[in-house]
């Protein structure tokens, strides 16, 4: 076979057994047939004594399909800055480290492959990358790569021993990482994922040991789905740009992570779904909140944000699913843990007002009464204000038009404030209401005070019960 080799192929053939580098970047003849490379990697030439064999080729044009499916390749492979006329087939193969940095190729099919080192695809220009159920014991490096396909990356069930690094990565088509297991981190700083009519990034049920970093210039045109993901450290979209023509832009349903950062560079275009996510820290910015959120079941230990409690109430009001008692109680509990009792009460009060909008007419009426009298139990001073106002009103009226004694034979000195108080407090007997009877129009004032007293008592009781039950 050696006699049939071209000059560049002979150089590669002779360099292989001693791990020598062949650079054809400036050569007139750069063509190396894929069959020659395949023969070398399948053991056509043994390593020289005392040397380690390896394929080290730069700047070549690889003609034909390089098919190494199900092969056992015990050699490191470097085919950097090469132009491939056809895709690479590594389905079910087992190999050492592979370096294709800077190469151009129609695609890579490596489903169920095992790479005992790094898979370096930095700065490649490639068609679809298939890594379904593959295992990479090192890192998957995609820095500054440009991948095109439908999907651009198909890596469901991928296992990576270290990081997936895609800083500056560009994908025209979906990136699929569903059910992947990444022991290190996923780093997509400055990456651009374009699939505006569908999903830009799907990582449902992914497990990441470190961070899932989509910060610092990360751009996604299309939906992102991180539902059911488990990320050990942080999911970050700080200074990222997220948009989608679909209603839902970012799905983090049942996401589990220590910290979620949603301080994007601009308001998120579309809906963010955080239902039943479990977060340690939520970091966001009210200036970049989406118009719609889904918050039912979301739990967090604390929120770090420039948003005030008033801003945060507006955040809850964006919940697409309407009133959620859990969402209000979760936020109030967070404020109470921080010692901000007033903010916690304000949140619970707003929650009752939100709940009232979905009630029947009698329920809404009862709600209004509780609101204006005692603030649903969260504004007890309001009840005292009403009591004082009614006491002053009754005192003024009955001081001018005194009621008449019911038993002249047993005269009792009339005191307008005590009489008014006796009317207002239905469960207290101060011996004034039973001893005197209002006359003329003042009778209606007395009846009104009695009614107001019962309303105050019942609303105070209802509000107190609600507060004690939540406390």
TrEMBL record:
Which residue ranges run through the membrane? 381-401, 444-468
Q: What is the lineage of its organism?
A: Bacteria, Bacillati, Actinomycetota, Actinomycetes, Micromonosporales
Q: What is this protein's record name? A: Membrane-associated oxidoreductase
Does the keyword Transmembrane feature in the UniProt annotation? yes
Give the organism, scientific name: Micromonospora sicca
Q: Could you tell me the keywords of this UniProt record?
A: Membrane, Transmembrane, Transmembrane helix
